[in-house]
User: Which sequence fits this backbone?
């Protein structure tokens, strides 16, 4: 990946001290938000857009995780997603998956490495 195509998100230290980070982006030229978090030592990023009815996962709550902090959960109707794959777990076999976004860790920082994404408010 050419470094010119990397878009700075935040330091790894910052994200390690947060449950997750929401940042404003354009995805395929449409305004949206992304949710970024560490899970089992690995950083993940998804479009913050529930695959049920296209609402933000945190549209009705101040979190994108379930009560145990283990699974991504939409606060609108309760769809639950596996954090490492984005697969919908509840309801089962819904066949829906959160849109993953490519990120990289480099020199103590996280970057979007996804040509579909443009950062609106870098930290
Ligand atoms: S909009 Fe997310 S569960 Fe319905």
Assistant:
């Amino acid at each position: 990946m050419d470094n010119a195509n990397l878009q700075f998100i935040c330091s790894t230290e910052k994200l390690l001290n947060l449950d997750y980070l929401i940042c404003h982006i354009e995805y395929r030229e449409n305004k949206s938000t992304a949710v970024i978090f560490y899970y089992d030592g690995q950083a993940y990023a998804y479009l913050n857009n529930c695959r049920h009815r296209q609402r933000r996962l945190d549209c009705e709550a101040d979190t994108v995780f379930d009560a145990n902090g283990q699974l991504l959960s939409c606060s609108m109707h309760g769809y639950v997603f596996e954090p490492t794959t984005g697969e919908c777990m509840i309801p089962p076999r819904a066949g829906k998956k959160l849109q993953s976004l490519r990120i990289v860790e480099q020199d103590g920082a996280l970057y979007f490495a996804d040509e579909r994404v443009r950062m609106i408010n870098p930290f």
Remarks:
- The longest helix spans residues 12-16.
